[in-house]
Design the sequence.
């Protein structure tokens, strides 16, 4: 950890005194990252602090705005943020791998029924089975074609989720933090496509994933 116990306690106190909103918020009720910055420096900003993993920070920014309010303000989420703040940047590729596996194993398969109903189920299933850029682009093209034919919001969101997966799969080109960002975006868009975002977010379990991310580098996980 890169923070003192006193700093983590200050973050916890700040976060627990607020209702965490979608978006940046203000000095009274700030978003997950801004609340951390207010506790550490007194500045209202969603710039990821130097003490925090960039991968975790980018992922949090993408998912926290789309999560249900109750989940974002749950005791579990709030208790993890002070730990996330002190994760540092030594194990970024390990964290990225966890987030990308979450995208392939948990997020994208959840949208399979939407893909089946839209007529591009085979391409969608192939995408998260083979986990390649080519398969993700094929799924995006198929979802886009279905969306053009049906003019459906679900198809549009599924198309965007597949494109986000494609960008996350393009690892040699995209920087680590961009991979985490696009993996998170695939969750946001898949939840929207599902028609029941609250149920989708319960399945995606961002609190459980954040727990895994903050544990990376601990002796118990090596």
Sequence:
């Amino acid at each position: 950890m890169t923070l003192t116990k006193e700093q983590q306690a200050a973050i916890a106190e700040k976060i627990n005194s607020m209702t965490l909103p979608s978006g940046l918020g203000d000095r009274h009720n700030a978003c997950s990252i801004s609340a951390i910055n207010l506790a550490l420096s007194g500045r209202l900003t969603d710039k990821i602090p130097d003490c925090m993993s960039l991968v975790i920070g980018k992922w949090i920014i993408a998912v926290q705005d789309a999560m249900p309010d109750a989940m974002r303000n749950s005791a579990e989420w709030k208790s993890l943020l002070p730990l996330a703040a002190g994760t540092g940047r030594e194990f970024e590729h390990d964290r990225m791998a966890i987030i990308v596996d979450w995208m392939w194993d948990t997020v994208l398969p959840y949208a399979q029924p939407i893909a089946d109903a839209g007529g591009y189920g085979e391409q969608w299933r192939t995408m998260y089975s083979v986990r390649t850029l080519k398969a993700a682009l094929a799924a995006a093209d198929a979802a886009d074609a279905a969306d053009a034919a049906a003019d459906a919001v679900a198809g549009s969101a599924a198309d965007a989720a597949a494109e986000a997966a494609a960008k996350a799969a393009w690892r040699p080109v995209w920087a680590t933090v961009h991979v985490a960002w696009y993996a998170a975006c695939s969750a946001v868009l898949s939840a929207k496509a599902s028609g029941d975002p609250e149920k989708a977010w319960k399945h995606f379990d961002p609190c459980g994933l954040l727990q895994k991310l903050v544990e990376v580098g601990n002796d118990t996980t090596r």
About this structure: The chain is about 70% helix and 0% strand. The chain has a mean pLDDT of 91. The radius of gyration is 18 Å.
